[in-house]
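Supplementary notes (optional reading)

For those who missed the lab, this is the record we used. Protein: ArsR family transcriptional regulator. Length: 112 residues.
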Amino acid sequence: MSTPSPGRTSGWTFLTNHAHVLLALARDPDARLRDVAESVGITERAAQAIVADLEAAGYLRRERVGRRNHYTINAVAEFRHPTQRHRRIGELIALFEPTSARLTDEEDFVNT
């Protein structure tokens, strides 16, 4: 198996676009999806679909504030894959965005 030369990528990454969108919203919970999409390298429509997925799964909540959206991440939500179910989303956020904005625990997430 050959190793890619420096500066050359093989076309895959360890984190999914869902993880990248979640991390971008942790970094800036008031970001426009256009800006999130640009930072992740996807279309705005793809970013919208990913946010809808994350919201439906209970990983984040979208709240309208004026003309913009504010996103709150449920830090205690568990990963979906069976081998990572014992881990919480807040651990991922803390690893990649240790000074991230607003995270909340499940009780606060559900009750607001």
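If you only remember one thing from this example: Residues 17-111 form a domain with the Arc Repressor Mutant, subunit A fold (CATH 1.10.10.10).
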